[in-house]
Amino acid sequence: MTRGAPGPFHAGEVAAQRRAGTHAVAQRMAGMVRDAMPPQHQDFFAQLPFVVLAARDGGGQPWATLRCGAPGFVRACDARTLAIAAPAVPHEPIAPADLAPGAQAGLLGIELPTRRRNRANGRVLASGAGRLVLGVEQSFGNCPKYIAARLPVPRPAPAGDAPPDDMHGGLDEPARALVRGADTFFIASAAPHGVDASHRGGAPGFARVEEAGRLLVVPDYAGNGLFNTLGNLLVDPRAGLLFIDFAGGGLLYVAAQAEIGWEAGAQRQLRLRVARARRVPGGWPFTSGPAQPSPFLARNTPPIECP
To answer: Residue 282, exposed/middle/buried by CB under 10 A (0-12, 13-18, 19+)?
Structure first.
């Protein structure tokens, strides 16, 4: 999204809205995008044990990663400033220089037990060892649909530092198995105006693995019609996916080229061509019991992006 007249949506988002026939609805909803966090969003971020962080690497590839800590590790200094006191995930694909002051970044706060989620996008004001300060330029809420509820409980830190596994051009079998069994993943996308972190969810198997791990296919159904993620991908097709092994504690980062299937009369799909991937053992510092599926899944309604 962008700031200023005639509204908060950039050209890619408007194009996606027009293609899907939701532009008029999106214009009516434009007021939900604020330039400052309301008090409830400030309080919300402060009670989370983790947030999803989206940023670009030095080559412009967007990535979704995590920042984790005891509740209170994220705090609102004021309505336009969020301070994060947490170390980077070891071996994550973005470097400290990618989060230098002035860099664009997006935050998704998601409270898994309650399915609440809110977003804050803006620019880095300050950064350093275990510290990141975000100047908030956009603040808005997201719907709770298709979030699998689970309670993250801190797990003991693993002994030693397990090396990451890098893959190029496709996913190996353990990575494919993680994707096939996922009920949740996060996606980072970008446009010249900023970077977004978003959630995708559904019943396990909603993210399909094709072509021996070289292609991921995800259904995309009409949500609130804003099309933040798809609008970004129309401008820049690079996407960064993050899959979490909630049982084993590993993370799977995937860089992909996205193509949107708009075929008439067919289900809209997001096709993600894998460029490279990285598996980081122990990057998820929590454990949890079985997930509680979203009640929307019981209605046999397909997965929705909101937005």
So the answer is: buried
